[in-house]
Amino acid sequence: MIILNGNDLNFEQVKRVIFNDEGVRASKESLDKVEESRKAVERIVDQEKTVYGINTGFGKFSDVRIEKDDVEALQLHLIHSHACGVGEPFPEVVSRTMLLLRANALLKGFSGVRVLIIKRLLEFINKRIHPVIPQQGSLGASGDLAPLAHLALALIGEGEVFYKGNRMPALHALSKEGLAPIKLTAKEGLALINGTQAMAAMGVVAYLEAEKLAYQSELIASVTMEGLRGITDAFEEEIHQARGYQEQIDVAKRMRAYLADSQLTTKQGELRVQDAYSLRCIPQVHGATWQTLIYVKDKLAIEMNAATDNPLIFNQGEKVISGGNFHGQSIALAMDFLAIAIAELANIAERRVERLVNPQLNDLPPFLSPEPGLQSGAMIMQYVAASLVSENKTLAHPASVDSIPSSANQEDHVSMGTIGARHAYQVIQNARRVLAIESICATQAVEIRGVEKMATSTSTFFKEIRSFIQPIVADRIFSKDIEKVDEWLKRKEAK
Question: Positions modified as 2,3-didehydroalanine (Ser) (predicted)?
Answer without folding.
Answer: 142
